[in-house]
Design brief:
- The structure holds two protein chains of two kinds.
- By secondary structure, chain A is mostly helical.
- Chain A has one domain: MetI-like fold.
- Chain A has 13 helices and two strands.
- Chain A starts with 12 loop residues before the first helix and ends in a 7-residue tail after the last helix.
- The mean pLDDT of chain A is 86.
- The longest helix of chain B has 25 residues, at 2-26.
- Chain B has two domains: 28-146 and 307-370, 3-Layer(aba) Sandwich (D-Maltodextrin-Binding Protein, domain 2), CATH 3.40.190.10; 148-305 and 395-439, D-Maltodextrin-Binding Protein, domain 2.
- The termini of chain B are far apart.
- Mean pLDDT of chain B is 91; it is low at 11-22.
- In chain B, the strands form two sheets. In chain B, strands 1, 2, 3, 4, 5 and 11 form a six-stranded mixed beta sheet that branches. A five-stranded mixed beta sheet of chain B has the order 8-7-9-6-10, with helices on both faces.
- The chains are: A mainly alpha, B alpha/beta.
- Chain A binds chain B through residues 44-50, 53, 55, 62, 68, 128, 132-136, 150-155, 238-245, 248, 256-257, 259-263, 265-266, and chain B through 69, 72-73, 76, 79-80, 97, 101-103, 192, 248, 250, 252-255, 396, 398-399, 402, 405-407, 409-410, 412-413, 415, 428, 431, 435, 438-441.
Chain lengths: 296, 446
């Protein structure tokens, strides 16, 4: 861009005044609570506000020395990766179908966008019924062989259930982006490779997916952060972190320790760690993955 | 046309509202937050309405805040913003937190300051003891009180050749085996709530859950439950589960123990006497059932069970007039008539001797719909409360209960042995206690 086209404010206060509302909102809803959480993380806060005591790194030490916490970190990462892979994979498949104008695609193009508009607790309630071991859709597994499906006692089943519900919600969001991405792939390229004898699968792997890489990368980041922070409602409704902490994801643990257990300081320390983790992961993705993508 | 009607309706509503406000101005109002939902919430609302209709001086506004834990969370948030209600219902296990926070007006001080004469000995000893200081002074008003019972399906028992409900755990196991043999798929329903099978179990067996008189003696108490009869009991439960005598019934699995019992699927279930009314309302056609005392092991001298439920705390920092109204509300709740009303519309028990006497006089327990409810009073009043049966004065109990559920799930899913689970629970519990002690460093339990 040449300098001649840059618009400049003459006064110095006007630009600040224009961004002030935005800054205020960010300050009130982001920096202030974060600052407060940071302070609480280094103190022991009495729940009713009767005072607090500075304890230095003790909250972090006790968080990091607890086996339950590391377990929570591990399963949160597992949940995020599994949900992201599943959600992007399914969305990509659906988007490719629509892009190829497979029969019936017009109908489900609309239908596939809806789930994103559903609130997570509602999804949780519906899926709780679907996965109910006695009367749900999955109950047929238990009729085939009793005890085959039991998310109330088997942690792996509970996690599978959460991943499916979480991915189900993200699929629609991913679908919109991937379809838009696919439709901006030049027709000429696709047609040229078809004339060279490349079948639909080959065209997908060698042409469309590589060209979609920036979109996939963007979705991977959004899905990952979303899985870390927005999984709360699903866990709360479907499993409450159980059985035996097998779905006690970091964000739910913060809630249950802080609000149910009234351990505000421990929860504050955990949320600082979660924030750093998400920031760090996004940073790593940009630093190392984005480099390998070609936008130009 | 429609518009005009709507306008007129709006006008009438507005006028009515103004009128109600004008009446309200003469009345001293106060707010009461509680942690009950559904049918129980309606019951509380009807109590509030009774109070408002009973006199013209005061009026109470009652608001449900969700379950007990939510009500406490919301109250704390409101308190920190200086918007707290005058009166709040706090569940039994939040008692230690409230006592140390020092944000309340003690029951005696409140009533004395508002000129109410209260016979404090009227409150039933095992109930009063839970909400009293270590010296016996009640700090909050017991409201909805209950205790644990076992629900017994008589017909299922008779079918398996058992005439009497089992009184010991040995008999429970034997009955369950016979039922199983007679084709009953789910003899015993169990969940991962620590209240009936762990906390009440410890009370009636007269064994401590923690040192320092279950925490009444000081914040440096430590959990010591992982031994003796408790250890034996949980290993038995796990064995019976593996044997197919126990089925896990939790809300997450679609039906909790009480619902499974009411549907006639499970023949024995454990829970609060407050569920009596739930079972009566939802029982399958012709279900022949009764509550009985929670069993003990053979050779145990059974003592009284512990009170559960919640009590009403008066919070500091409201205008003086509201305390006058709140005191009148408490006095109203403690009348035998109010107690009878409350026990009639819910499954809870009366909390005063006068209330209990009135129920007995009026033949309350003889009515068919209340059959078996006297069992709760017998269980609660069986002996004088001991250090082990009067209550738990331990911090972070909500988190302890969550840890209990998680460790039990691990043991029942076969990830750990029961001994490992109990040891892990005790260790986590002690960490929670130490953290609580540190949070309230330098403070003393009253």
């Amino acid at each position: 861009m040449s300098n001649t086209r840059r618009a400049l404010f003459r006064s110095t206060w006007l630009p600040w005044a224009l961004v002030l509302p935005q800054l205020l909102i960010i300050f009130v809803f982001f920096y202030w609570p974060t600052g407060e959480a940071l302070y609480w993380a280094f103190t022991l806060e009495q729940p009713w506000g009767g005072g607090n005591a500075w304890v230095g790194w003790q909250n972090f030490v006790s968080v990091f020395s607890s086996a339950g916490y590391w377990h929570s970190v591990r399963i949160s990462i597992l949940y995020a990766v599994a949900t992201t892979v599943l959600a992007i994979g399914v969305a990509l498949l659906l988007a490719l179908f629509v892009d190829r104008e497979v029969k019936g695609s017009r109908g489900y193009r609309l239908a596939a966008i809806w789930p994103y508009a559903i609130a997570a607790p509602a999804i949780g309630i519906v899926f709780r019924f679907v996965f109910d071991p006695r009367s749900g859709v999955f109950a047929f597994l238990n009729q085939a062989s009793p005890g085959m499906w039991d998310p109330t006692l088997n942690g792996n089943h509970a996690m599978t259930m959460l991943v499916l519900a979480g991915a189900w919600q993200l699929v629609s969001y991913n679908f919109v982006f991937l379809l838009a991405g696919l439709q901006s792939v030049p027709r000429a390229l696709v047609e040229a490779s078809a004339m060279d004898g490349a079948g639909p699968l080959r065209r997908m792997w060698d042409l469309q997916v590589p060209l979609l890489a920036p979109t996939l990368f963007f979705l991977a980041i959004i899905n990952m952060t979303d899985s870390f922070t927005h999984s709360f409602a699903l866990v709360d409704v479907m499993t409450s972190g159980g059985p035996a902490r097998s779905t006690d994801l970091m964000v739910y643990k913060i809630y249950s320790d802080g609000f149910k257990g009234l351990d505000y300081s421990g929860a504050a320390a955990q949320s600082i760690v979660l924030m750093l983790l998400v920031v760090g992961m996004t940073f790593l993705q940009f630093r190392f993955v984005e480099r390998k993508l070609h936008y130009k | 046309m429609l518009r005009k009607t709507a306008l007129a309706a709006g006008l009438i509503l507005a006028l009515g509202g103004a009128q109600a406000q004008a009446q309200g101005q003469q009345r001293q109002g106060f707010t009461f937050w509680y942690g009950l939902t559904g049918q129980l919430s309606e019951a509380v609302q009807s109590v509030c309405k009774r109070f408002n209709d009973s006199q013209a001086q005061y009026s109470v506004t009652c608001t449900s805040q969700g379950d007990y834990a939510k009500a406490l969370q919301n109250t704390i948030a409101a308190f920190r913003a200086n918007e707290q209600p005058t009166v709040v219902q706090v569940y039994d296990i939040g008692t230690a937190d409230l006592m140390l926070a020092g944000v309340y007006r003690p029951a005696r001080e409140l009533m004395a300051s508002q000129g109410h004469q209260v016979n404090w000995n009227n409150y039933l000893p095992p109930i009063a003891a839970y909400y009293a200081t270590s010296k016996g002074e009640m700090l909050s008003f017991p409201f909805n009180s209950s205790t644990a019972v076992m629900y017994w399906n008589r017909a299922a028992g008779q079918k398996a050749g058992i005439a009497e409900a089992p009184a010991t755990w040995e008999q429970v196991a034997e009955a369950a085996r016979k039922m199983k043999a007679a084709g009953h798929a789910c003899p015993i329903a169990m969940d991962f709530d620590s209240w009936a099978l762990f906390e009440q179990f410890a009370a009636i067996h007269n064994v401590p859950v923690a040192t320092r008189a279950n925490g009444y003696g000081g914040l440096d108490a430590e959990y010591v439950f992982n031994q003796g009869v408790i250890k034996k009991h949980f290993n038995n439960l796990l064995d019976w589960y593996k044997e197919g005598l126990i089925q896990i019934r939790t809300p997450q699995s679609g039906k909790d123990g009480i619902a499974s019992f009411a549907a006639g699927e499970c023949a024995m279930a454990f829970g609060s006497i407050a569920s009596h009314s739930t079972i009566r309302r939802t029982a399958a056609e012709g279900l022949d059932w009764t509550p009985v005392m929670v069993p003990v092991y053979e050779g145990t001298q059974r003592i009284n069970s512990r009170v559960g439920g919640a009590s009403l705390w008066t919070l500091k920092g409201r205008p003086e007039g509201e305390y006058k109204a709140a005191a009148a509300f408490f006095a109203f709740l403690a009348t035998p008539e109010s107690e009878e009303y409350w026990s009639t519309i819910t499954g809870y028990i009366p909390v005063t001797a006068a209330g209990q006497a009135r129920l007995e006089q009026n033949g309350f327990y003889k009515k068919p719909e209340n059959a078996g409810r006297e069992v709760a009073m017998q269980s609660l009043m069986l002996t004088e409360p001991t250090e082990n049966s009067r209550g738990l004065r331990l911090g972070n109990l909500t988190q302890f209960r969550a840890a209990y559920a998680n460790e039990m799930q691990a043991a029942f899913a076969g990830q750990k042995t029961m001994d490992q689970a109990l040891a892990a629970l005790q260790e986590q519990g002690n960490q929670l206690l130490r953290r609580f002690e540190q949070t309230y460093r330098g403070k003393q339990l009253p």
